UniProtKB/TrEMBL annotation, chains A, B:
ATP binds at residues 117, 134-135, 161, 240. It comes from Psychroserpens burtonensis. GO terms for molecular function: ATP binding; magnesium ion binding; thiamine-phosphate kinase activity. Substrate binds at residues 65, 291, 343. It catalyses: thiamine phosphate + ATP = thiamine diphosphate + ADP. NCBIfam families: thiL (TIGR01379). This is Thiamine-monophosphate kinase.
Length: 350, 350
C-alpha cells in the first residue's frame, strides 16, 4: 500500500547516508533550553542544570509491532514517538529530547521515509521535544525504528513503580482496551481487502478505536492535570502491555497486593460494541489488550477528594497487603486472581 | 557457527520478555554516581549535577554491519558498546551509561544472547559504564542491536567538529586501516571454509588486524592522555567511516580546508603486508577503510611540543583556508583532492 501513495520514488542510495540524515532532519526545530548541540556531531550535548534526567528506549520492528498494509507511515512515526514519551510521563517527567534510529530496506523510497519523518516531526512539535540525533542504516528486510527519549524532572517529583502502599487507590486515566479492538477491526479489514480489494469499508463507527490504535497520544495532559490538582501519585506506570501486566509490575515492585473492580474499569462504548461484535469479553481486553498508553497510578486515600468526579481519572480498585495477592472483583462479586498475560513479542514469532 | 558453540539451547519464548530482560541483565552492576535508578521502571533516572551530557546512538544490523559466520557473539556485544563509546570520547566526555535494545529471531537460543550480553558486560566493566535500560523484542529475521550511550562533561571541555582553524595540525591516534584489512582476511577465510570446512587456517600473522576488526577498543586512554598532556584539541571526531570521510566532516563544519601527507598516515606493518597480499593500495584503505575507532583531531600549533614524539599521536597534516580545499599530498609530492567515500550502508543492499 505504501507504494501506491507515492507518485515519486527516489532511491535511498542516491542520497547516501549523510545526505539522507540531512534531508530527513532539516525541518526539525530546537526548542528546549537544555539542548546545547543537536544533530551534526559525534553526539548531542545537553545541559539539565540541577534537574534529574529520565531515559527510556523502545524498538519497533515491522511485522512484529506494526503492519504497513494498514498503518500509514506518518501515523507510525507519530506513534513511535508517543510510545517513548509515554514512558517519560509515567515517571512524572517532562519529555525534552529524542534520538531516532531507523534501519530500512531499499524497497522503501525516500518519499516513504519522508512520510515517517513527517509524523515524527508533528509529534515533536505538538509535544515540544527536540530530535537530537539518530542513526540511519539499511536492513535486509523491513523497517526497524529505535527511539530513545529523555526527560527532565526535579529529584523530588520522580514517581517510581515501587511506591504503592496498602489502602492506596488504583487510578487509571482515560479508558482502556480501545487500541486492541481497533487492531482487531484493522486486521479484519485487511482480510476483507485480500478477498475483495475494491471493497470500500465504512469504518466511521470504529473511528475512535481505530484512532487509538493508529495514532495514540501520550498523556502529558494527565501529568499537567495531576500537578494542577496537587496530587502526587505514590506509584505510576504507563499501560503499554495491558492493565494486568502493568498492575503486576506495580505490585511486584511495591511489594503489595491489589483488588481491581471489574465494573469500575473505564471502557468506551465503541470498545463494548466492538467486543460484542467480535464476541470477545471486554474485561479480558481491558486487562490484556495493551497499547493504550494511558497512565496507571496509585494515590493516597487522602487525595481522593481532589480527583473525585474528574472525567479523566477513574478509581478502579485499591492496594492491599501483599499476602492477599492480585485479585479482580467480578461483577457478581467473586474474587478471581489476576494473571498477567500482557503482550509478549517473543511468542508466536518465526 | 553460533549453533555449534552451544551445547544447550533454551528457547527464548520460555522466558517471556520480562523474564529474558531480568535474566540477561542480572549481572550488570551500577557504578556511576549519576545513575539514580537503572533498569526496572518506565525509564532510568540520572543526575548529572552541574555537568553537561552527551548522547549518541547507533544501530547495528545483521548481514549489514556484521556476519555471525565469523563474528563471535561475545565480541559483537563488546564491539557494539565500543562503537558508541567512541562517539562519546570524540566529544572529549566521560562515558557513563548505555541503553541496549535488541531484536532477535527465534533461531537464537537463550545461550546465544547470554554470549552477546557477556560481551556487553565485559565492555561495561572495563570502561566503567552502567547499563541503565533497553528493550528486547523479536525480529522476523536476524539480530538487530541498538545502543544509546550517555557521557558527562564540564561545559568548557566539550570538543566539537567545528573548531578547526587554519594552521592547526591534524593528528590521529594509533594507526588506521587495520579493521578493514582484518575484515578482508575474515571474508576470505569464510569463502575457504565454504569450500573446505575441515581447513584449519593459520591466522597468527593476521592477529592484530583481525582483533582490530572483531574487538576494537574505544580510545578512552587518548582522552585521558590529552588531559595529562594539557592539550585540548580544537576539533575532534572518531574514525568510524574512514579518514577521508571524517576529515571531510571536520572541514565542512569548521569551514576550512586540509592538507594530509600520505607518507605520514600511521599504518601497522600487518596492514602493509596484508595490502600487498590482497593487492590493494594501503593509502586507499587508510582513507576509506573505516571501523578503526581511532580519534582524529586538530590541535593548535603551539601544542605541538606537548605531543611531539608521543607514540600514540601522529601528525598527518595541517588545516588550510577553505578555498584551498581538501588535499592529499602524495609520496611523490603531488596534491590530489580527497574524495570522501566512507562506508555507505545504504548502497549495495537488497
Amino acid at each position: 500500500m505504501i507504494e501506491d501513495k507515492n507518485q515519486q520514488r527516489t532511491a535511498l542510495e542516491k542520497l547516501g547516508e549523510f545526505g539522507l540524515i540531512d534531508h530527513l532532519t532539516k525541518n526539525f526545530e530546537i526548542n528546549q533550553k537544555s539542548t546545547i548541540k543537536s544533530i551534526g556531531d559525534d553526539a548531542a550535548v545537553l545541559d539539565f542544570k540541577s534537574k534529574q534526567l529520565v531515559v527510556t528506549t523502545d524498538l519497533l520492528v515491522e511485522h512484529v509491532h506494526f503492519d504497513l498494509s494498514y498503518v500509514p507511515l506518518k501515523h507510525l512515526g507519530y506513534k513511535a514517538v508517543m510510545v517513548n514519551l509515554s514512558d517519560v510521563y509515567a515517571m512524572n517527567a517532562s519529555a525534552t529530547q529524542i534520538t531516532i534510529s531507523i534501519a530500512v530496506s531499499n524497497r522503501f523510497p525516500l518519499e516513504a521515509l519522508e512520510e515517517l519523518y513527517a509524523g515524527i516531526e508533528t509529534a515533536a512539535k505538538i509535544y515540544d521535544i527536540d530530535v537530537i540525533g539518530g542513526d540511519t542504516t539499511s536492513s535486509t528486510t523491513g523497517l526497524i525504528i529505535s527511539i530513545t527519549a529523555i526527560g527532565e524532572i526535579d529529584a523530588k517529583d520522580v514517581i517510581y513503580r515501587s511506591g504503592a502502599k496498602p489502602n492506596d487507590l488504583v487510578v487509571v486515566s482515560g479508558d482502556i482496551g480501545a487500541a486492541y479492538m481497533g487492531l482487531q477491526v484493522l486486521e479484519r479489514e485487511k482480510e476483507v481487502f485480500k478477498v475483495n480489494p475494491k471493497n470500500q469499508p465504512d469504518l466511521d463507527h470504529y473511528a475512535y478505536i481505530i484512532e487509538r490504535q493508529l495514532k495514540p497520544e501520550a498523556r502529558r495532559d494527565i501529568i499537567e492535570l495531576l500537578k494542577k490538582l496537587e496530587v502526587k501519585p505514590t506509584s505510576m506506570i504507563d499501560i503499554s502491555d495491558g492493565l494486568s501486566s502493568e498492575i503486576m509490575h506495580i505490585c511486584k515492585q511495591s511489594e503489595v497486593g491489589v483488588a481491581i473492580y471489574e465494573n469500575k474499569i473505564p471502557l468506551d462504548p465503541q470498545v463494548i460494541s466492538a467486543c460484542e461484535e467480535f464476541n470477545i469479553d471486554s474485561t479480558t481486553i481491558a486487562l490484556n489488550g495493551g497499547e493504550d498508553y494511558e497512565l496507571l497510578m496509585t494515590i493516597s486515600q487522602e487525595d481522593f477528594p481532589k480527583i473525585k468526579g474528574n472525567p479523566n481519572l477513574t478509581v478502579i480498585g485499591y492496594i492491599t497487603e501483599k499476602a492477599r495477592g492480585m485479585n479482580l472483583i467480578t461483577r457478581d462479586e467473586q474474587s478471581v486472581p489476576i494473571i498477567a498475560k500482557g503482550w509478549n513479542s517473543l511468542e508466536n514469532q518465526e
